[in-house]
Amino acid sequence: MKIQQYYLACLSHASYLITDAQTRTAAVVDPQRDVDQYLADAAAAGCTIRHVFLTHFHADFIAGHIELRDRAGATIHLGRRAQAEFACVPMQDGDAVEFGTVRLEVLETPGHTPEGISILVYDLAKSTTAPRAVLTGDTLFIGDVGRPDLLASIGVTADELADMLYDSLTTKLMKLPDDTLVYPAHGAGSMCGKSLSKETVSTIGEQKKFNYALQPMSREAFKRIVTADQPEAPEYFAHDATLNRRDRAPLDKAMRKSLEPLSLAEVLALEEQGAQLLDVREGIDFEGGHLRHALNIALAGTYATWAGSMLAHDRPIVVIAEEGGEEEAVMRLGRIGFDNVAGYLRGGMQALAARDDLVEQTPRITAPALAEWLAGSRGDVAGTPVVVDVRTPAEHAGGHVPGSLNLPLAHLRERLAELPAGRPVAVHCEGGYRSAIAASLLQQSGRSNVHDLVGGFKAWLAARLPSEADPATA
To answer: Angle at the Cα of 60 (from 55 to 65), degrees rounded to 5?
Structure first.
């Protein structure tokens, strides 16, 4: 028996391939939508993927259960409370799938969602009574537990889910042997919790010692602590949770439709009809010259999460990329269920070589230069730049450029009216990734004289320029 973990850093997502050499059978748990790696690794082990489990209906990505069903003939397994629009095997406490030396036994562990399950993995060659590992989905993370407030499952309140989560942890998962390996579905960076560790495997014993949510406390204290200070969930989460229930088109079919090369004239015509222009190049390249009205979300970062937050899933998207980067851009959108890509600009920015009238730039400014600008224009309010901090409120409160306006990127579009009219804008985040998105959004909305602070707030501090913090966090 072998458990192989796959970690997709850009979505902080872990999935698992479990193989049995004796029966040449494999199962996959919580697969990402692009499933080639599971099929290839199973084949390399001489195995066929016959089972695919979802621990719950994920909200932050589209799972690959439909793809594995269609390409490998795998049977889909879900918790008995799952209401799916495709054929699946409903499983409850004690139900198991067994092949060779492997037994996969279900524990119903609702709390993050009502249908949530964990999967006990037994290596029968070593023990028929003690599990080797437990795949906990989004019920138990390393250092955290699944948040009960996402409302991915309509009709169940956060309070009800927190009650379920308390019971799942205290009466089931914490009762497992201390040496049971814990393999969760997410790690640090996921919006499915607030304190997830960078580690991707632990044990029940370690989590009982160090996980804040597993310490002795009353039910009411637990409910207060797990619902407090959760990060804001991106808008696309509800779309993905719904799509994961449906019998949808597989990724390869969606990509064949989306990877359509378009001429500049076709792109402009689509824009006139309401299409969204998405430039996925690095911020520095985008700001050196880009198609006007394009939004910059670079592939080299948390691309899918920000694309899901900043783009609409029900309007066409046109991708602008470095030549050869179009497929990755479209595939990573497909991972979050954005199958609404109409195509990509053939030739990328080379298509605009003779159309300077369509090219826009974004000035970049260093921290010392911005400080000089602010100091030198104090007597001229109209010429004083508005410093816009697009980090989260908590980041801003912990330290910021004096006088800066905090407009978090996730809400920038809806709060544009708060920007004083007619004044230059200098936008920044922590390191530069989010500010490039923000600057492109400001230009897209019609703002002129927008500058992007090179290196963000980190560069401001590195230059030993003044900063301030809110009293509560100082």
So the answer is: 45
- Two tokens, residue 362: 């974004």
CA distances from residue 239 to 96, 98, 117, 123, 368 in whole angstroms, order as listed: 31, 34, 21, 37, 43
pTM over 0.85: yes
Question: What would the pLDDT profile of 31-80 be if each residue is shown by its tens digit?
Answer: 999 999 999 999 999 999 999 999 999 999 999 999 999 999 999 999 99
What pLDDT band is residue 272 in, cutting at 50, 70 and 90? Answer: very high
Ordered domains of the chain (ranges, CATH): 2-240 (3.60.15.10), 250-360 (3.40.250.10), 364-462 (3.40.250.10)
Measure the CA–CA gap between 465 and 474, rounded to whole angstroms: 17
Confidence of residue 122 (pLDDT cuts 50, 70, 90): very high
Q: Quickly state the pLDDT bin for 382 (edges 50, 70, 90).
A: low
**CB burial class (10 A; 0-12, 13-18, 19+) of residue 228?**
exposed
Query: How does residue 350 score in pLDDT terms, banded at 50, 70 and 90?
Result: very high
Residue 66: closest CA among 296, 243, 256, 306: 243
Q: What are phi and psi of 17, to 5 degrees?
A: -115, 125
